């Protein structure tokens, strides 16, 4: 049977044509498909922010779904394949480095979530989002703090987003091996900050983030480090 939800009164968001989204309380949930949404990559200094939306199939349960941060890389990879095979539908959306720098990371994250939901083959009756913020959508939404550990559809979305972004970082490492993206996935580790000081920023670094801005100010002539030949495209799902 399609996924349905039954829960206590929740905070939701609607959008009618020409009307800004508003929040209200309902003591009922719509009958129909429920999508889980989560993101990966808000904190790193480089690369896009990625969001995933997943509608699970109750007839094809997936064992071991959990917050992606609590799973080993191998387990995430295996669950990624199983989710893709068993879910009714799933979608991944991104907001680019340029969008992050022009909009700010929060608005770019909401944009990536919106793109993920809009990319679903089936339209959900309700969307459950990890965290305490909601993207602009034309369906009912609920924000659930810690949802990636509470709601299976959100757990599945967290796994898809994390694996997709980790694969993208592995591809970026092939282009710019001096930074060690395959190890730190773009986060501001000591090794990454040292590479920024030594080589400046590469094209995929977020200029609006303070450590990157400081590296650019210190090395204004450095545009990119010594690297392997650039490859077309990006690694990912």
Kindly describe this structure.
The chain is α/β, with parallel strands linked by helices and 237 residues long. It has two domains: 10-170, Ribonuclease H-like superfamily/Ribonuclease H (Nucleotidyltransferase, domain 5, 2-Layer Sandwich), CATH 3.30.420.10; 175-218. Helices cover 35% and strands 17% of the residues. The protein has seven helices and seven strands, in the order E-E-E-E-H-E-H-H-E-E-H-H-H-H. The chain has helices spanning 73-86, 97-103, 105-118, 152-175, 181-184, 190-199, 210-218, and strands at 10-14, 22-26, 34-40, 49-55, 89-95, 126-130, 140-144.
Which features does this protein show?
237 residues; alpha/beta; Nucleotidyltransferase, domain 5; 2 domains; five-stranded mixed sheet; two-stranded antiparallel sheet; 7 strands; disordered N terminus; disordered C terminus
CATH superfamily of the largest domain: Ribonuclease H-like superfamily/Ribonuclease H
Report the mean per-residue pLDDT as an integer.
86
H/E order of the elements? Answer: EEEEHEHHEEHHHH
> CATH topology of the largest domain, anyone?
Nucleotidyltransferase, domain 5
The CATH top-level class label of the largest domain: Alpha Beta
Q: What class would the helix/strand composition place it in? A: alpha/beta
Morphology: globular
List the uncertain runs. Answer: 1-25, 223-237
Q: Note the gap between the termini.
A: 27 Å
Helix content, binned percent: 25-40%
Strand content: 15-25%
Rounded Rg: 19 Å
**Strand order, largest beta sheet:** 5-4-3-6-7
Q: Treating each run of at least 4 consecutive H or I residues as one helix, how many helices? A: 7
CATH architecture of the largest domain: 2-Layer Sandwich
